[in-house]
Amino acid sequence: MSLAILRSRAQFGIDAPLVTIEAHLTGGLPALAIVGLPETAVREARDRVRSALLNSGFEFPARRVTINLAPADLPKEGGRFDLGIALAILVASGQLPTDCLDGYEFIGELGLGGELRPVRGVLPVALQAQRAGARLVLPQANAAEAALAPDLTAYGAEHLLAVCGHLTGNAPLAAAQRAVPLDGACVPDLADVRGQPAARRALEIAAAGGHSLLMLGPPGAGKTMLATRLPGILPPLTEQEALETAAVQSISVGGFDVRHWGQRPVRAPHHTASAAALAGGGTTPRPGEISLAHHGVLFLDELPEFDRQVLEVLREPLESGHISIARAALKAEFPARFQLVAAMNPCPCGYLGDAGGRCRCTPEQVRRYRGRLSGPLLDRIDLHVELPPVAHELLLAQEHAGAEPSAAVRERVQAAQQRQFARSGCLNARLDPAGLRRHARLTESQQQFLARAIGTLGLSARATHRVLRIARTCADLAGSEALDMPHLAEALQYRLLDRRPHSAY
């Protein structure tokens, strides 16, 4: 048979679309042509495949070989099609049985000696293969990642000869077994934080309702300590959330480490990061920091030091939970359901309002510093909390009585989230206006109180909705189905920061 057809998978955003590899042998001068919109690395497969076949003891057909990667309008990149191309040539030239490819999908890069090398983006391929009911053959180095896909039969191989032995039945490969690490990540404990009861309370509310948080305070007040302890009070990832998180990381530059399975990602990009690094991009779109923080925490320290245009890319993902990267010929969409935690100083020197008089910033300097953050962005951050300096007595004390550990806070957070999912099927931060009206009903006196607060603080409609969502979370933490006045008052105090004049600091 001079024609062979098998299945592989490309990478397109978070998806792994099916690619059919067709090999056709015809008469004429010996040549190997690859068509189907291949990029440079795919075209270079001609030399890799030829050397791998010869060094593995096979014959490379002395005929004209045409490889078609269909569909032709889907860009193909990387060395992931090497294994499929080599097997298609072997079947088309009669060196492998014609029916040995049925029910399989293949992915993997070939070395010149025939060894199989790992590729990126294996987990999305495994998930799509599982949905298609196919078995997957891939490099051994990727087998542990592919085994994370539920109900998938995946075979890892070290060499092209091992794959051929499996397909002919002479030396079957063992199916990859799922091995989930038993030890979780070592997350800092909230008990390490000295003082800052208001900030600890805001962190608990943020965790319980999925809210974004902005902390403002002088250097050394504990902003970074609190942010790094947020994952420790969040509930464990569900199976679906863990798969989504791992799939995004799988297609990133660094790939996915199976030892981090089930751990919430924490991303903390430097303030010199570009908009493409934060949102994602490239000629072939790759996920940025906001997508790599999917179902995790995105911590932006020194928030005003970020370029303003960079921060503006956060606005839509904060609302929608996804981001679309558009290029002239294609458009990729990545999930971005992250929890934003930001920190900033009250002024350029960081000591505005210090009792010792260390701040020498003028009101104009403070205004320009605060003006680096746009109003629409601040409107989208749910909780604003101010951190005072930590008292020296707390820092120097050998024992810190009353410091609540992360485990105790996490229990309350889990209970509050269970109430939210039972009531509305989502966290309070994601309630739409209709759901907010159903689950955050106000009495007449509460409506009047909120109307006065809106007029006094000049809150926008978006900020008002955020106040109601926060109040709903406060009620859930208290185990109350009805919103009480204390819940509403507490929610309003987390919107005062961005409205307070600079002279008040």
UniProtKB/TrEMBL annotation:
A molecular function annotated in GO for this UniProt entry is: ATP binding
Q: Identify the residues that the record assigns to the MCM C-terminal AAA(+) ATPase domain, covering every copy.
A: 288-383
One family name in Pfam for this protein = ChlI
Q: Which SUPFAM superfamilies match?
A: P-loop containing nucleoside triphosphate hydrolases (SSF52540), Ribosomal protein S5 domain 2-like (SSF54211)
The answer to whether keyword Electron transport applies is: no
Superkingdom, natural source:
Bacteria
InterPro entries from the entry?
Answer: AAA+_ATPase, CHLI-like, MCM_dom, Mg_chelat-rel, Mg_chelat-rel_C, Mg_chelatse_chII-like_cat_dom, P-loop_NTPase, Ribosomal_Su5_D2-typ_SF
PANTHER family named in the record? COMPETENCE PROTEIN COMM (PTHR32039:SF7), MAGNESIUM-CHELATASE SUBUNIT CHLI (PTHR32039)
Q: Which family does it belong to?
A: Belongs to the Mg-chelatase subunits D/I family. ComM subfamily.
Q: What is the name of this protein?
A: MCM C-terminal AAA(+) ATPase domain-containing protein
Which species is this record about?
Immundisolibacter cernigliae
